[in-house]
Amino acid sequence: MPEARSQQRLGIALVVAAAIAWSTAPFFTRLLPYDSWTILFWRGLFGGGLIVAIMLLLQGRAGLRDLLGMRKSGWLVASLSTLAMIAFIPSLQLTSVSNVAIIIATGPFVTAALAWVWLREVPHMRTMIASIVALCGVAIIVGNARVGSDVLGIALACFMTLAIAAMTVLVRQHKNTSMVAAAALSNILGSIVSIPFAHGIAAVAGFDLFILAMFGFFQVALGLTLFFLGSRLLPSGQAALISTLETPLMPFWIWVGFAEVPALRVFIGGALVMGAVIADIIGAQRQSK
Asked: At what angle do helices 97-104 and 151-173 cross, to 10 degrees?
């Protein structure tokens, strides 16, 4: 039991850290004046390269074997992750951050439904109630969302949410299999897919290249790796709920980087999201005692 509690705490910490890393995407996107495919190419190249380098540094030849001898489950997780990444950047460019954020916030429900059908993992009522509160918080944050417009961007955000939900359930199903190699592969695949569509790969230089490197290193490599490591230690619905912390943090980074002060509803909605996640975490800790 103490070991289970320790693993649960570690899983929570890892997914919280992943949500913080993921939340920086709008900040980096705002800094880059390139088409989405060019951003995806360089971000994936830097992100995948960093993960491979870390694997080789920490595991040596064993890390290389994990990458080259990846199982079918790893390929499937990598493919879903790649599809989600490919959909995410264009969705931010085709519709507002608000629209994308509220669709992402439905992730816990989609994930819990898939986990119930796929793994027969019944979501805890506490987590479902917290997810509803978090969704209400996101709805308040994006109170001026243009629901009827930007159809393609909204469709891409919905597709991304479904892909992430399926990926989360798969990682949980194969929790005894290392998925770090899958994180590296997903970035590499994203770069390869982007090549035929990117218009400015060769035009990127100087400070923009540094921004893309930070985008790949921090938001993708670190965020994805932490999420893969953490979500295998938690019920799928809870992992998805904790990841919604990225939503109230997205406006925070825009505030810090571009001095765009969030509206009052952002603070109110953000407090609801954070309160819901914290309440679920405390409830889980008490239940495990």
From this structure: 30
Do 248 and 269 meet the contact criterion of CB atoms below 8 Å apart? Answer: yes
Residues 6+ apart with CB under 8 A from 75: 182, 185
Cβ proximity of 250 and 28 under 8 Å: no
177-186: buried (b, 16+ CB within 10 Å) or exposed (e) per residue?
bbbbbbbbbb
Q: Tell me: the pLDDT tens digits for 196-205? A: 888 888 888 8
Q: What angle do CA 127, 128, 134 make, to 5 degrees?
A: 85
Residue with tokens 């992943």: 18
Contact assessment for residue 33 and residue 200, using Cβ atoms and an 8 Å cutoff = no
**What's the chain's Rg over C-alpha atoms?**
18
Q: What is the pTM of this model?
A: 0.81
Sign of CA dihedral 158, 74, 7, 250: negative
Structure tokens at 70: 């990846």
Q: pLDDT per residue over 214-228, tens digit each?
A: 999 999 889 988 988
- At residue 2, does pLDDT exceed 60? yes
**Where do the domains of the chain lie?**
30-288
pLDDT in tens, 121-141: 777 788 888 888 887 887 787
CB contact at 8 A, 183 and 190: no
